[in-house]
Specification:
Helix content: 25-40%
Bound molecules: 1-O-phosphono-alpha-D-glucopyranose
Number of strands: 13
Catalytic activity: alpha-D-glucose 1-phosphate + UTP + H(+) = UDP-alpha-D-glucose + diphosphate
Number of domains: 1
Shape: globular
Domain Nucleotidyl transferase: 10-265
CATH architecture: Alpha-Beta Complex
Distance between the termini: 57 Å
Protein name: UTP--glucose-1-phosphate uridylyltransferase
Strand content: 15-25%
Radius of gyration: 20 Å
Structural class: alpha/beta
Family: Belongs to the UDPGP type 2 family.
Largest sheet: 9 strands, mixed
CATH class: Alpha Beta
Strand order of the largest sheet: 5-4-1-6-11-8-12-10-9
CATH topology: Spore Coat Polysaccharide Biosynthesis Protein SpsA, Chain A
EC number: 2.7.7.9
Order of helices and strands: EEEHEHHHEHHEEHEEEEHHEEHH
CATH superfamily: Spore Coat Polysaccharide Biosynthesis Protein SpsA, Chain A
Number of helices: 11
Length: 288
């Protein structure tokens, strides 16, 4: 069955990015001129996703507005003959079929995914976490879907990270099957360095099967007192094989201030519209 549905958990409070996220959803922070969440929706759509469910919370209305038509703005742009801008804002509302559900309590990523149960039904589905922006020749989710096509089983995005950082991630013990493809043998959420089974970290892209829902329904709280998706995946791995895809591409952790800055610089260096002016500025600043 083709993967057409994606779940975006966006209820998080963005405490790593205060005070900017006090009243603005972290997903709406812009990399140059586009909110983070739009990059991730574009990745999903480019990978063949047709329906997106945002699992939202209080204070996230701006995300709904961003993916809706903006009547006044569109009329104004039309009247002024700004057709390129008009096309750009209109197509955001037409990228995919968008749905929303509220996660009424902040009980963790596993709980957020459980809120998508009715939307997902009996199909395989994707999960995309908005903090991870991945600049890749083939969209990262598309790379996971290629692995899914071969095994018809859950697939996690994996990246080798420096061991000093492993306790910020879910971590896997895995058996390499091919270049960039692994079978996941065990998983642990945010281990201490000495307990980490490898340097392979789970990055915020998943293909899951509906078998995850009955597990999440009775999943006990884990790390940080939250219902962890990683813990549910440990149990799922006893029922179905789980695979990993060490994706090709550059990942930016945009939930973190330094990661966000790096992503901004990277994206700006790639933009033709600045015509080298940004490179010149950086060179000048660094030589001072
Ligand atoms: C979540 C997952 C973790 C994963 C990470 C990827 O953690 O629980 O397993 O490695 O996303 O970004 P969070 O960063 O939301 O605390």
């Amino acid at each position: 069955m083709r993967v057409k549905k994606a779940v975006f958990p966006v209820a998080g409070l963005g405490t790593r990015f205060l005070p900017a996220t006090k009243s603005t959803p972290k997903e709406m922070l812009p990399l140059i001129d586009k909110p983070l969440v739009q990059y991730v929706v574009e990745e999903a759509v480019a990978s063949g996703i047709e329906q997106i469910l945002f699992v939202t919370g209080r204070g996230k209305r701006a995300i709904e507005d961003h993916f809706d038509h903006a009547f006044e703005l569109e009329t104004l742009l039309e009247d002024k003959g700004k057709t390129a801008e008009l096309h750009e804002v209109r197509q955001i509302a037409e990228m995919a079929k968008i749905f929303f559900v509220r996660q009424k309590q902040a009980l963790g990523l596993g709980h957020a995914i459980l809120c998508a149960k009715e939307f997902v039904g009996a199909e395989p589905f994707a999960v995309l976490l908005g903090d991870d922006i991945i600049d890749a020749p083939v969209p990262c989710l598309g790379q996971l879907l290629d692995v899914y096509e071969s095994y018809r089983a859950p697939v996690l995005a994996l990246e080798k990270v420096p061991m000093v950082n492993i306790s910020s991630y879910g971590c896997v013990r895995a058996n390499q099957l091919a270049k960039r493809v692994y079978e996941v043998l065990d998983l642990v959420e945010k281990p201490a360095i000495i307990d980490a089974p490898s340097d392979l970290a789970i990055i915020g892209r998943y293909i899951l099967t509906p078998g995850i829902f009955p597990i999440l329904e009775d999943q006990a709280p884990g790390k940080g007192g939250e219902i962890q998706l990683t813990d549910a995946l440990v149990r799922l791995s006893k029922q179905e094989s789980i695979f990993g895809c060490q994706f090709e591409g550059l990942r930016h952790d945009c939930g973190d201030k330094l990661g966000f800055l790096k992503a901004t610089v990277d994206m700006a260096l790639k933009r033709d519209e600045f015509n080298g002016a940004f490179q010149d500025y950086l060179r000048m600043r660094l030589c001072r």
